[in-house]
């Protein structure tokens, strides 16, 4: 007698139960069942965490070959036909910044030094297990990266994950890896982080290595007078786990400034990568930031840097180099030829 299989499909932050399947049904049959539940056509579906011999299974692969447990959650990417039809239309009312706010002068300092939040950080240091992927390297600084809207546009429509990847991602990470250990910290769960990094080819790239992942469980909540309770990413959790990283050699990129509220001096607010289907050809943010990382990599300390003005810093460096090129220093007396 065939065993009935019940699965859960997670898509667009919602969960859908898919039943009436048996071990002898195929991936193609599963996709048809998902289509009936979600409206996403089978050819649009990307079932991220289904693997057969290390690869995404073909449509004729039987469910029995995957040995799925009852209630297994399938993470799906895919777009409805209506969304694809509207993909090339930019909304007139699209705000410049979404899901973020500006911190008032002095408010970040007040929050950063409150004992109640420092105690929460101490608890995370004791109890949270960072997922270490590769060994740290001696004398390297640390770059901490967000995922959504920083490296990846997870809401725009696309045929595949590659189309949602921020342009020049691998070039940027390869360049940064020369001077920095690279960590990923996302406000999602660890399973999603792992799947997104696989999808983007980050976790298996030959030219750089990610040192560790942190997920939402490493974050803490803080209270701000104007915005109430919010979750943030305190770098003190990393510094407590890895003493070689400090405020002097750590920089964090995130598209929302609230995430580095506990460490405002170490945060750089990157321009959010949204509307990937429209902006893939013009976005150069990672190329510019790779230059900034190289420019500051030789500094002994980041403490005196204001990362809000990173573009201004690069312009000043370029002017300085041009000035030196145009007006070389006169030779010293020892360099003068004998008369």
UniProtKB/TrEMBL annotation:
GO terms for molecular function: metal ion binding; protein serine/threonine phosphatase activity. Keywords: Hydrolase, Magnesium, Metal-binding, Nucleus, Protein phosphatase. Its cofactor is Mg(2+). Pfam families: NIF (PF03031), ubiquitin (PF00240). The keyword RNA-binding does not apply. Residues 316-339 are annotated as: Disordered. Its EC number is 3.1.3.16. Residues 316-325 have a biased composition (Basic residues). The keyword Protease does not apply. It catalyses: O-phospho-L-threonyl-[protein] + H2O = L-threonyl-[protein] + phosphate; O-phospho-L-seryl-[protein] + H2O = L-seryl-[protein] + phosphate. PROSITE patterns: FCP1 (PS50969), UBIQUITIN_2 (PS50053). It is found in: Nucleus. Residues 5-83 form the Ubiquitin-like domain. NCBIfam families: HAD_IIID1 (TIGR02245). This is Ubiquitin-like domain-containing CTD phosphatase 1. It comes from Ranatra chinensis. The lineage of its organism: Eukaryota, Metazoa, Ecdysozoa, Arthropoda, Hexapoda.
């Amino acid at each position: 007698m065939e065993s009935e299989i019940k699965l859960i499909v997670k898509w667009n932050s919602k969960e859908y139960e898919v039943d009436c399947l048996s071990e002898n049904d195929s991936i193609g049959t599963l996709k048809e069942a998902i289509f009936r539940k979600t409206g996403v056509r089978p050819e649009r579906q990307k079932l991220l965490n289904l693997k057969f011999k290390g690869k995404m299974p073909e449509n004729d692969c039987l469910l029995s070959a995957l040995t799925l447990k009852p209630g297994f959650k399938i993470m799906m990417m895919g777009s409805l036909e209506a969304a694809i039809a509207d993909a090339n239309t930019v909304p007139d009312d699209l705000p410049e910044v979404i899901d973020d706010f500006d911190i008032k002068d002095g408010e970040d300092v007040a929050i950063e030094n409150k004992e109640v939040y420092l105690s929460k950080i101490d608890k995370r240091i004791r109890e949270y297990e960072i997922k270490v992927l590769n060994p740290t390297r001696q004398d390297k600084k640390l770059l901490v990266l967000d995922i959504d809207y920083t490296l990846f546009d997870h809401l725009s429509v696309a045929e595949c994950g590659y189309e949602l990847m921020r342009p020049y991602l691998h070039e940027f990470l390869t360049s940064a890896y020369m001077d920095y250990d690279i960590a990923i910290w996302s406000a999602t769960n660890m399973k999603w982080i792992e799947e997104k990094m696989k999808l983007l080819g980050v976790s298996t790239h030959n030219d750089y290595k990610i040192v560790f992942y942190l997920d939402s469980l490493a974050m803490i909540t803080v209270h701000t007078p104007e915005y109430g309770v919010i979750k943030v990413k305190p770098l003190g959790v990393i510094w407590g786990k890895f003493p070689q990283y400090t405020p002097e050699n750590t920089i964090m990129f995130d598209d929302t400034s609230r995430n580095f509220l506990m460490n405002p001096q170490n945060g750089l607010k990157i321009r959010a990568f949204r509307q990937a289907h429209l902006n893939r050809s013009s976005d150069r943010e990672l190329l510019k930031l790779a230059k900034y990382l190289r420019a500051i990599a030789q500094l002994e300390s980041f403490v005196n840097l204001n990362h809000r003005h990173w573009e201004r810093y690069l312009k000043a460096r370029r002017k300085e180099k041009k000035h030196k090129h145009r007006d070389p220093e006169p030779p010293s007396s020892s360099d003068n030829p004998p008369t």
